[in-house]
Structures are given as C-alpha cells and as structure tokens.
C-alpha cells in the first residue's frame, strides 16, 4: 500500500498551480518536488507500480516538466536521479518563465527499504570518509551532468538533491565549478559530518569550542602545508567562491545543522579580528587533515566557500520531520535567509 506522503494529490504543493519563477518559495518548492519525484520513481520500481498505479509522474508533470531519463546505479540497479525538461504550455508563458530552468537534474537521498538500503548506506559511509567522488554512482552522475551542460549550456541547468542526493548534487556542482561552470543548485539537508557543536544551547560554550577548533585546524593545516597564502598556486577553495548554491537546513536535523555554525562562525571571527585563522580553518577539516597525514589526501565534501543559507526555523516534531524533504514546499514555512560570500 502506498504511503500518503508518496501521493502528490495528498501531500504535494497543490497551492502552486501557477509558478512564479521569480519567487524564492516557488523555486524552492518545485526543486524539492522534483527531488521527491526521484524518490517515488524508485519506490514505483521497487513495488512494481506501473500504469495507473505508478505515483511518480505528478511530482513533475504538475509543474510542466517531462522526464527525459533516469539514472540507474550500476551496483543495485536502483534509480537514484532523474533529468527533467521544462516544457510549459503556451498559456503559461509569462515574464517569470525567463527565470525558470530548462533542465533539472535531481538526486534522491537514502531509501531505507531492502531493495536499496545496502547500497545507499554504503554511499553514506563514502561521504563520511570523503570518498563519494570515487564511487561509480557519482561517475554516472557527473557524466550525465557534463553531457546535459555540453548540450544545452550551463545557464539552462539546475541541480537539486536531498540528503545523500544533496551530497551528490553538491559534489557535482563543485566539480563543475572547478572548471568555471557555475550551475544553480538547490541542496536540501546536505550532510555535514562533524562534532554536533550546533546542538549546544550555551552560546558562549558553543563559540568557544568553535574558536578552539578553528585554531587547531588552522595550525594543522599550516603545519602540513595546506596553506596557499605564501604560494604561487591558486587557492582552489577561493576559486570556488563565485559558485553560490542554495543550502537548505533545519536546526533540528543534526545531519546538516552544522552548516549554520560553519558559515556564521566566519563572520564572528572577522569581527574579532582573527578572520585569517578562520579563512585557513574553513577550507580544511580535522578529519581530512588526519587522513592526509596518513597518505590519503581527500577534500571534505561539505566544505564550501559561499552559500545562500536558508534555515527553516519552523518547529518540528522530531528528527524525521526536520530531515524530511516535505518541509521544503510547505506554504507556512518560517525561514531565515543569509548570503555568505567567501572573500
């Protein structure tokens, strides 16, 4: 039996009968719905729902997208992403359509069902060890992104993903940005694995721990020559600063909430006059530095120079709700937005 949350007519953003592409809420809601469409594509496959029983298509057809193709994992044959094309009817053409994407590549997150959970959890562990870029699923994903961009141009393509899928979209966006191609990206509940400092209620303790962590990380980075300040080399972290993804997090979601402190801490360090320490610390992680010291040099996926941070401060009942994709198309969201631009 299908879950109510899989049925667009019961849980989708039906209030968006007409999309204003200049409206941030509308853009966020559509991007999240397209990601949900990938989740349901895979559930349709697992449950062998076909024809009238299939539930996936309303998640994109309601917004006048067509499914061009889906991406399949070569290990478990699960559907992990979809490529959509926007084809609005002439009756829906208006000035805001110029702000719409022509194509969206969307990635789902982990599905805790027997048919896919083993492979998804394996990839979650690759994120933890900074190895997602080495997986065959990412190779399939980045090749698809490159092919679409080569065909239609970067200004016509959006990336979107949730949880594990947000990590995939983030890595794809960073990879393309390193070549000078900046794709608009909507990253919902993207994982940030670190000590849960953001959950500490005492602001002084929280800030003290972040300062200590920054000093230690910057010191290790300097000692291991992970500094570009006195080098002829181009700082790859600074080179990414022109790419500004939309990063959607919930304070109640401990898997992604560290982004809040990670980005805000830079400003506080600048205010204290020790921004140079934080600029070195912010492009490194203790885990990455330790792995590098052991001969396994890797770039932490979650470290990004710039972002439009959107925080959902609407009260949530539990972690499942705080981490879920459904929250991002609610019309009554209480959100706080802030632009962080690395300099």
Automatic annotation (TrEMBL):
A single Gene Ontology biological process assigned to it is: lipid metabolic process
This protein's species is Salix udensis
- Protein name according to UniProt: Fungal lipase-type domain-containing protein
Q: Answer yes or no on keyword Hydrolase.
A: yes
Record GO terms (molecular function): hydrolase activity
Protein origin, superkingdom: Eukaryota
The chain positions of domain Fungal lipase-type read 143-182
Keyword list (alphabetical) reads: Hydrolase
Q: Which Gene3D superfamilies match?
A: alpha/beta hydrolase (3.40.50.1820)
